[in-house]
Amino acid sequence: MAVLQKIVSLWVILHIASMLQPTTAATLDSEGNADNVADGDFQIEYSRYLKQVSELLDADESFQEAAKSLTHTNEKEVADTLMYASPETRSKLDELKRIEVRRLKDLHKKAMKKATKAHSTYVKSGIKPSKKELPKTGIDHIDSSNPLSFGGPDLHKLITKTLTDMSKIDELRKGDFKNHELRKAYDYKTKFRDLSSAEQQKKLKEHLEKARKHPKINHPGGVEQLKEVWEKTDRMTGMDFNPRIFFMTHDIDGDGLLDPSEVEALFERELDKIYRAVNSTVDGVERNEDMNRMREHVFTEVDTNRDGMVDWEEFRATLGAESQDEGWESVQDKQQFTDEELKEFEEKLQVLPYQ
Questions:
Q1: What is the CA 32 to chain-centroid distance, rounded?
Q2: Cα 184 to the chain's mean position, in Å?
Q3: With helix as H, strand as E and coil as C, how does the chain read?
Q4: How far apart are CA 246 and CA 243, in angstroms?
């Protein structure tokens, strides 16, 4: 979504923080650039502030009631809705913003010192500083015109910046996954380094083909997939599939919406078909990527108002469009890189120190 050009959903800000579970040092800095990217998940530089704001608003009943009446919002509507938050919540939001402003100022001071040192080194030695040595002072997630209090513009900017960065994180994740697959293929081929290049390639193709031998995967979010969850996971064998009961059963927090984590839970059985059928050792990175792709696919098909959640009407409409199950192609069913990309990857490793 081109967030700056389209209306954004207020409810994204209330749930997006729960999706940020950083496990590595891979980070988007305050300007939205990638830094310290490694295999695994990614985080947003201001994620603590985002999470704290989200938790405060999520706990404010008056704000929640006002926000529920909105489907899509512009900046004025966000500002008007924030007025319904309790005085206590508003006061806590003001304090959170002041803390965030101080943090950003400290970051700027440190960045300036680093830049000054890098410039001094450049003057003395002629060595140009890298981009990481230059200051990064982006503050697009707050309203810098009012550093003392948290207002509607702050909430709008936080939503906008978060959605933009989440899109960037998706792209980083996909690139990181391709590198994982390239490295995995390279490592497998090196087991047969005494063979010719053609024979190594043949061994790799046979290895990849073996991973594709798993039961049929139901289309994520399709009727057949949901019915299988109903019968096997929910243990409703012998009972007619009831969409309303199914929706309520999997709406774990009872808020009338299926959030990303609740939707992801529906895919566990399909993923087990892939990663327990033929593999004694599960590749967790591949499993997570399949989970991410399934979630993205379902939200693209089902989440028609693009608020990052699936409500009952959206869920019911999808079931009404019942058609033949087309199945699903997992990341193991199709090579995730071209032969040329693998060759280029191998050439790069050969000119580097042992990795």
A1: 14
A2: 23
A3: CCCCCCCECCCHHHHHHHHCCCCCCCEECCCCCEECCCCCCCEECCHHHHHHHHHHHHHCHHHHHHHHCCCCECHHHHHHHHCCCCHHHHHHHHHHHHHHHHHHHHHHHHHHHHHHHHHHHHHHHCCCCCHHHCCCCCCCCCCCCCCCCCCHHHHHHHHHHHHHHHHHHHHHHHHHHHHHHHHHHHHHHHCCCCCCHHHHHHHHHHHHHHHCCCCCCCCCCCHHHHHHHHHHHCCCCCCCCCHHHHHHHHCCCCCCEECHHHHHHHHHHHHHHHHCCCCCCCCHHHHHHHHHHHHHHHHHHHCCCCCCCEEHHHHHHHHHCCCCCCCCCCCCCCCCCCHHHHHHHHHHHHCCCCC
A4: 5
What is the torsional sign of CA 40, 46, 51, 54?
negative
Place of tokens 């003392």: 148
How far apart, in whole angstroms, are the C-alpha atoms of residue 287 and residue 147? Answer: 43
Query: Tokens at residue 177, please?
Result: 């996954």
**pLDDT tens track for 29-86:** 444 444 443 334 446 778 889 888 888 888 888 888 887 776 555 556 777 788 899 9
d(CA 125, CA 113): 18
pLDDT at 75: 59
For residues 340 and 338, give the distance between their C-alpha atoms in angstroms, rounded to a whole number.
5
Nearest to 44 by CA among 174, 115, 138, 147: 138
pLDDT of residue 280: 54
Pairwise CA distance, residues 50 & 160, whole Å? 12
75-88: pLDDT as tens digits: 567 777 888 999 99
Structure tokens at 50: 């985002």
Distance from C-alpha of 308 to C-alpha of 171, rounded to nearest angstrom? 18
CA 102 – CA 139 distance, rounded (Å): 12
pLDDT at 19: 47
User: Among all chains, which residue has been given the structure tokens 């108002």?
Assistant: 305
Output the pLDDT for position 268. 93
Residues of the chain with pLDDT under 50: 1-11, 13-42, 133-135, 354-355
